[in-house]
Write a structure and sequence with these properties.
CATH superfamily of chain A: Luciferase-like domain
Oligomer: homodimer
Distance between the termini of chain A: 26 Å
Helix content of chain A: 25-40%
CATH architecture of chain A: Alpha-Beta Barrel
CATH topology of chain A: TIM Barrel
Bound molecules: flavin mononucleotide
Shape of chain A: globular
Largest interface: A-B, 82 and 82 residues
CATH class of chain A: Alpha Beta
């Protein structure tokens, strides 16, 4: 990491059962049974591991609707369930699950991630989200999603408690002396006695300290609240960036905020999302892209976009402009909504054009081209301060993932930009992150003076 | 099931990493690493499956304390995490996880069990508990565990919602027609729009209908509230019964309540817990028992008993009588507390004697003997209306489990009391339970008239 030549990029695979393009399930090569076929996910994880990727990642949303499932390939596994199963059929690759702080209790969450970290030998990561839609709130006793700032405030308290729970067992608390009958050193197992605005949690956790101490903390919010939260707490950041300039500005902003918060900027890995369509020739790639556009269904895309921006767009003419959203603070997914509105305005897109632009990656950067073209783009962003690595989001899983792993990854390896072997065993190792200090541990006297 | 000769008993294995005896971890044969060693659980599940057991089961509690971990082998996996992993390395055996209705949200729970049911091909079961200790409440924003009746009221509403969520996708809702782009028939995916005393949940679930329709519903409360709840909703019942007479009375009571509630008594499998210590001779068995008593630690047993009865017994003289518990409604684990108090009074036990009686199975029936003696006891309870099968709780996992599977199960098979092959693939098949009707499904006109 120290010399510039040795700096290597990180690759996360954003897993969906059929692909990131909204129409991926309709593609002739797609097997729709994949949604609930564990052996498919097992093969996929094995391939990603063989290519030495840092991690695989599952997104999450806690609602759907009859109108969404009419067109969309929805209804698969809850992420931690699937990753728990994948943990025991993989060896090295990291396993990142999304769980919302708005609809869970810290004790339950801390426990499940500690369990996954044990089960996987230290490969768990948590994508911390606050959720952003009323549909989700309505499955959890609310009428409306709480205000943006309030969600992040709850997220801060939630994370503080979770970290304390992970710290509640010191690393060397276990004694397990059969002779004396002492199982653990009770001075090294701590109550929290947390009483805050949103939660009261006594602790300790009922899972002993896991291999990584705590899961790798991942965050994906890009609003002001989201950036500040990420800069203070996240160890990896997913982000949707349309252009190199925007990505570089975001990258610089996060690293500066991190430094200001007293953190080492090298301990935050920034991973913009890339949705590739890869062909051996440019023409082949364009044909694949055209096929997906042809299979797209604007009725479905409109529902998805409406959910995303929190405003009902169905009924608006497809060949007219994107309507003005009512002027108010965006309550839901703030930065993504802004990105979409800006994209439509900047390029003066009709609603239909906008839908096509979003269909492949919901606002993430889409790229269509040859392996070399794609590797060039990744290298450019990486070398010029716009990324520490990438969140790979194949538009089509069948074929699209293999194309990336078999054609682009080797090219990155040839360029010396990506590992050819794992050097560590934990997800922290892969991302070059330190083992976390324990806030409850008393330093030995000899160390305490330095 | 129809003729008496063909009636066979059911066997569930109550899994703990080291054994049900409080001192099991201190036994020379025990490997304490087992708590977090997945390969141990995998071997254990494989053995239970090879013996054709109906299911394995994990209990749960959402709290611990520094004083408990000082002596007790505590700090292992969260149950659904472990069972998700076991689902993909087993083929036939049922997987029952305990989750509390007092500290979870119905949407999250319904989703995780639907996911596990998909992952396992229809082998999920849910042990529905309401939890019973203040220590647990204090990890979830409360000072005290809610009143007994209130917990069961919440449990009823919780279960009602969970079942509706599992029913929210009809069995034939998936269309997945690539040509038309219709993924699901939106008339067969239902919102709940539930608004109740404890919860508001809109639905539908975001997991499609699972192989069993819903997990097998298991319950283990034996208070009046618990019995009534079980009789109305449970498909299998775990229960602690000290004697044949008590077990038979309980069995009759539940079956009568079930009939009164309009259910078929054959669709509720009653499984008293049995904690065996098995020797090839009676003497060998007694020696094993003595060894465990010798390893017991009254200080730890007192903490555990105090937790269980919700009253601090530490400091009371071990060789005096069990102190009177303050006369008030038992808020926590009602029936177990009563069982313990009655046992101490009936047999006039000192505190130390009581602790030894409880150390092997916390109030479950302990039996020490030869395979034949144990098989005799099981047959007696089964044939004479006290049980439909048993919840097997080996006091020692190392050795104790194998003894049961290799010595007692074959004896039960020889007597024609237990299957020698699985005849179905789902947990419902093993327990002879029907596939559940869907409350949202409209019956075709031709059927609706009958
Ligand atoms: C790669 C990536 C993955 C995301 N995954 C999820 C997810 O699974 N669930 C979710 O609700 N939001 C997800 N988000 C959205 C973010 O959590 C966040 O709400 C969004 O970026 C807007 O953040 P902001 O409100 O701070 O601007 C994801 C974002 C990115 C960039
Ligand atoms: C075999 C068995 C397993 C149980 N597992 C749990 C458990 O995992 N967690 C828990 O809190 N209670 C558990 N219980 C306790 C019951 O859920 C219930 O609280 C207890 O039997 C008292 O019920 P009552 O209050 O209705 O009398 C279990 C009981 C039995 C018989």
């Amino acid at each position: 990491m120290s010399s510039k030549e040795n700096r290597q990029l990180h690759l996360n695979l954003f897993v969906t059962p059929v692909g990131h393009h909204e129409a991926a399930w309709r593609h002739p090569d797609t097997d729709v049974d994949q949604l609930l076929d564990f052996s498919f996910f097992q093969r996929l994880a094995a391939k990603a591991e063989a290519a030495k990727l840092d991690s695989i990642f599952l997104a999450d949303r806690v609602a759907t609707s009859p109108s969404a499932v009419q067109y969309g390939a929805i209804g698969g596994y809850e992420p931690l369930t699937l990753l728990s199963a994948l943990a025991v059929v993989t060896k090295r690759i990291g396993l990142i699950a999304t769980v919302s702080t708005s609809f869970n209790e810290p004790f339950n969450l801390a426990r499940r991630f500690a369990s996954l970290d044990h089960l996987s030998g230290g490969r768990a990561g948590w994508n911390i989200i606050t959720s952003g839609t009323d549909a989700e709130a309505r499955n959890f006793n609310l009428e409306q999603i709480p205000e943006h700032a309030e969600r992040y405030e709850r997220a801060r308290e939630f994370l503080d408690i979770a970290v304390k729970l992970w710290d509640s067992w010191e690393r060397d608390a276990l004694i397990r002396d059969k002779e004396s009958g002492i199982y653990a050193d009770h001075h090294k197992v701590h109550e929290l006695n947390h009483k805050g605005k949103y939660f009261s949690v006594k602790g300790p956790l009922n899972v002993s300290r896991s291999p990584q101490g705590r899961p790798v903390l991942v965050q994906a919010g890009s609003s002001q609240d989201g950036r500040q939260f990420a800069a203070e707490h996240a160890e990896a950041i997913f982000t949707a960036q349309q252009s190199f300039d925007e990505a570089r500005a975001f990258y610089g902003d996060i690293k500066r905020r991190a430094a200001k918060a007293g953190r080492s900027p090298g301990h935050i890995t920034i991973l913009p999302g890339i949705c590739p369509i890869i062909g051996r020739t440019e023409e082949e790639a364009r044909e694949k892209e055209a096929k997906l556009v042809e299979l797209s269904n604007p009725a479905y895309s409109l529902i998805m976009l409406s959910n995303r921006v929190g405003f009902d767009l169905t009924g608006y003419p497809l060949d007219g402009p994107m309507p003005q959203l009512p002027v108010k603070e965006v309550r839901g997914h703030q930065s993504r909504t802004n990105l979409i509105v800006e994209l439509a305005q900047r390029e003066n897109l009709t609603l239909r054009q906008l839908l096509n632009r979003l269909a492949g990656g919901r606002g993430h950067r889409t790229v269509t081209g040859t392996p070399t073209q794609i590797a060039d783009m990744l290298e450019h962003w990486f070398a010029e301060g716009a990324a520490d690595g990438f969140n790979i989001m194949p538009q089509l899983m069948a074929g699209g993932l293999e194309d990336f792993l078999e054609l682009v990854v080797p090219e990155l390896q040839r360029r010396g930009l990506f590992r050819t072997e794992y050097t560590g065993t934990t997800l922290r190792d892969h991302y070059g992150l330190p083992y976390p200090e324990n806030q409850f541990a008393v330093k030995p006297a000899s160390q305490a003076h330095y």
